[in-house]
Design brief:
Number of helices: 5
Number of strands: 3
Shape: elongated
Largest sheet: 3 strands, antiparallel
Oligomer: single chain
Strand order of the largest sheet: 1-3-2
Radius of gyration: 22 Å
């Protein structure tokens, strides 16, 4: 059997990656935080409040979760940079960080395929 001496490449290499490694790492951390359905629900609940913010005491009943569980999920979202918090007396109010959501949208922006 005769084999060709030189194997040519069948594909041309990709020109570049559209997302930088550090941006990919940050986006992956956000997806890990949102990988729990309760956290995704929390983010949605807070974002859709008339004032754009909510306290733990307002979030337990809609999700049917205990206060410690909700607090844990809020901490994960906060540490991922998706929420910011403000202490008011004994209560902590959380609101969505719009810039992080926009960065997530941009990271997911894929070109539309033409048919």
């Amino acid at each position: 059997m005769n084999f060709p001496k030189q194997i040519s490449t069948c594909c041309t290499p990709l020109l570049s990656c559209c997302i930088k490694p550090e941006e990919a790492a940050q986006t992956a951390a956000i997806f890990r935080a949102l990988g729990e359905p309760a956290r995704l629900q929390l983010l949605s609940l807070i974002a859709n409040q008339p004032a754009g913010e909510a306290c733990v005491c307002e979030l337990t009943e809609p999700l049917g979760l205990s206060q410690p569980t909700v607090s844990h999920h809020l901490k994960v979202l906060y540490e991922a940079g998706l929420l910011e918090k403000e202490r008011r007396g004994t209560w902590i109010y959380y609101r969505v960080v719009a810039e992080r959501i926009e960065a997530l949208r941009n990271a997911l922006a894929l070109p539309q395929k033409t048919q």
